[in-house]
């Protein structure tokens, strides 16, 4: 009797080869795809999966859960890894892993498999998440041990088995797409000194070809979550797509970074996250208006840790849940409007307003109407500086 394995299937080079490879090893393969906003032709991937030996392809629409349970919590947390990566791929992995486990339970499978390499982050994210949900399931990671050690050898393997692929030796990029952004690596990008070619980008146009006239929009938040654009309520998915379209036309949302991978190596990555770039900027601007100084400064440390937990695959941990409780408390008054202006390659916050604003013009102004008693400043400075009186005087000649 064949052993059943649920494979995290993208339809790309690695997982297409994996379907055939696992079948040749005696497994009955159930290909699993999560719809998290890739906008793929799933009928095409069904044909490909079945043609390469899968018993069936299961596609689940997880977009609502992805936005509600992963994207918006990360937005409220201002979670950005190493100041540039909005964690689109990393956020999707625990969601996919959890639903793969559910699929395995339904299908009576004792194995789960993924197409992650032994030097990437995703292997950690998938496997830790799977073990957190059901430690009894066995995880297969063929790319860590199979004989296809390079992308070139995988391409040759695919050709020899008649597996149709878009990837070629001339364009050997590894691309991961979802609603929140795109990750691109491999090929010429492996040399940090080589500039990326413009044809790798999918969501953003070159800033040099952006519209000459600027565009201004108003984003409305309630409790740290965006709900409207220019006063119109949109579904969460449509709001993200709308912002992605606007920002993308202006070339906003590109990142070219050398990041520190969890496994200890540096990796050159290209990211596109136009909607995330805009929403994070707007969200931070609104927080600056309604959060007090101590909250803001303390939260910045929490944001760093939250981003690391996501990046490291530690979503299903007590710490992340505890941090969510703190972050949710900070968002109760993050309600208001933010105007964003788009120009070539830029999205700039130009105004922010809220009923919970802590900004008081009568204290900040230098014009008439100033109610700040500047005479109080001397006592404040004297007390604040008291511990440091003479601290640099010792040892002087």
Features of the shown structure:
397 residues; alpha/beta; Rossmann fold; Argininosuccinate synthetase, chain A, domain 2; 5-stranded parallel beta sheet; 5-stranded antiparallel beta sheet; 12 helices; 14 strands; 39% helix; elongated
Task: Describe the model.
The protein has 2 domains: about 5-175, HUPs (Rossmann fold); about 180-355, Alpha-Beta Complex (Argininosuccinate synthetase, chain A, domain 2), CATH 3.90.1260. It is built from 12 helices and 14 strands. The chain has helices spanning about 15-25, 40-50, 65-75, 90-105, 120-135, 150-160, 235-250, 275-290, 295-310, 320-330, 360-365, 375-385; strands at about 5-10, 25-35, 55-60, 110-115, 140, 175-180, 180-185, 215-220, 225-230, 230-235, 255-260, 265-270, 335-345, 345-355. The strands form 3 sheets. The chain has a 5-stranded parallel beta sheet with strand order 3-2-1-4-5, with helices on both faces. A 5-stranded antiparallel beta sheet has the order 10-9-8-13-14. The chain is elongated, with a radius of gyration of 25 Å.
List the topology elements.
Layout: E1 3-8, H1 13-24, E2 27-35, H2 42-51, E3 56-61, H3 63-76, H4 88-107, E4 111-113, H5 122-133, E5 138-140, H6 151-160, E6 174-178, E7 181-185, E8 215-222, E9 225-229, E10 232-233, H7 236-249, E11 254-260, E12 266-272, H8 274-290, H9 293-311, H10 318-330, E13 336-343, E14 346-353, H11 361-364, H12 376-385
Parallel strand pairs: 1-2, 1-4, 2-3, 4-5
Antiparallel strand pairs: 6-7, 7-12, 8-9, 8-13, 9-10, 11-12, 13-14
């Amino acid at each position: 009797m064949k052993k059943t394995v649920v494979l995290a299937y993208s339809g790309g080079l690695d997982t297409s080869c994996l379907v055939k490879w696992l079948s040749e090893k005696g497994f009955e393969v159930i290909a699993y795809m999560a719809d998290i906003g890739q906008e793929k032709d799933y009928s095409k991937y069904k044909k490909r999966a079945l043609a390469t030996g899968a018993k069936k392809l299961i596609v689940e629409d997880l977009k609502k859960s992805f936005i509600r349970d992963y994207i918006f919590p990360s937005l409220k947390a201002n979670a950005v890894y190493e100041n540039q990566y909005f964690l689109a791929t990393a956020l999707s992995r625990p969601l996919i892993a959890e639903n793969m486990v559910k699929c395995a339970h339904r299908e009576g499978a004792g194995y789960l498999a993924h197409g992650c390499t032994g030097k990437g982050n995703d292997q950690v994210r998938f496997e830790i998440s799977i073990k957190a949900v059901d430690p009894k399931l066995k995880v297969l990671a063929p790319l860590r041990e199979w004989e296809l050690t390079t992308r070139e050898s995988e391409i040759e393997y695919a050709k020899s088995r008649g597996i149709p692929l878009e990837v070629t030796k001339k364009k050997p990029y590894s691309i991961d797409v979802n609603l929140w952004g795109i990750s691109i690596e491999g090929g010429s990008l492996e040399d940090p000194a080589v500039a990326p070619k413009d044809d790798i980008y999918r969501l953003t146009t070159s800033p040099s070809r952006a519209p000459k006239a600027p565009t201004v929009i108003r984003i409305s938040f309630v409790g740290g979550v965006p709900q409207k654009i220019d006063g119109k309520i949109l579904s969460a998915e449509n709001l993200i797509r709308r912002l992605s379209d606007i920002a993308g036309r202006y070339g906003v949302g590109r990142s070219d970074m050398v990041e520190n991978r969890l496994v200890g190596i540096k990796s050159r990555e290209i990211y596109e996250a136009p909607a995330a770039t805009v929403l994070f900027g707007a969200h931070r601007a609104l927080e600056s208006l309604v959060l007090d100084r101590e909250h803001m400064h303390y939260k910045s440390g929490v944001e760093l840790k939250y981003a690391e937990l996501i990046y490291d695959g530690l979503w299903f941990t007590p710490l992340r849940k505890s941090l969510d409780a703190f972050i949710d408390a900070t968002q109760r008054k993050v309600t208001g409007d933010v105007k964003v202006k788009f120009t070539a390659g830029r999205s700039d916050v130009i105004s922010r307003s809220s009923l919970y604003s802590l900004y008081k013009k009568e204290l900040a102004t230098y014009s008439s109407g100033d109610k700040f008693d500047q005479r109080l400043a001397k006592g404040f400075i004297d007390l604040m500086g008291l511990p440091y009186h003479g601290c640099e005087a010792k040892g002087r000649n």
